[in-house]
């Protein structure tokens, strides 16, 4: 009888522990960062690099798209900086009322000036290839507090928007947890200076995959050519 009671108690404890794990998992999956619940994703394109890459030094998410693709503010705020940097190129910083600061870098064109009060979804610029950049993309940073040179306040943007991976297609959405969409391929507009090797590396595919999907028999490509990027 005593042995039966011990087994019964152990079974109850195990059931409680499993239940806590399940609930905890659901909570972790649904958790949002306070003050960012209504944010929208800043641009449409393909994730070409993720937070924490390059040995942990990349404190941003990169979204590759055609030059001129609109870039939007994720939320209401005030433009704290708007200038041309040697590294960021044309860049916009926005201070949000929630205490966060977001950064939109390598822009082709800037649509706002320092001191402007802007709304969520307002265009702040367009995707470009300025500064230290190897192709047209948006370098997007989120800081919990002010931006600093050391970027100690930087957080992973996909902590807010839901998990995504290199090669995923994303849209500028007002529902942050439905930003990431699944697709089998996307389109890429070739930029000046692009090579098949550079494009393949950007999207973590091989040159052979890229050539096969686009029926290319040589390595020759030209600016504004549209290539299909297969998702592996």
Automatic annotation (TrEMBL):
Keywords: Hydrolase. One of its GO terms (molecular function) is metalloendopeptidase activity. InterPro entries: Cell_wall_metabolism_enzyme, Dup_hybrid_motif, LysM, LysM_dom_sf, M23ase_b-sheet_dom. The keyword Hydrolase applies. This is Murein DD-endopeptidase MepM/ murein hydrolase activator NlpD. The keyword Hydrolase applies. Gene3D superfamilies: Glucose Permease (Domain IIA) (2.70.70.10), LysM domain (3.10.350.10). Residues 186-229 form the LysM domain.
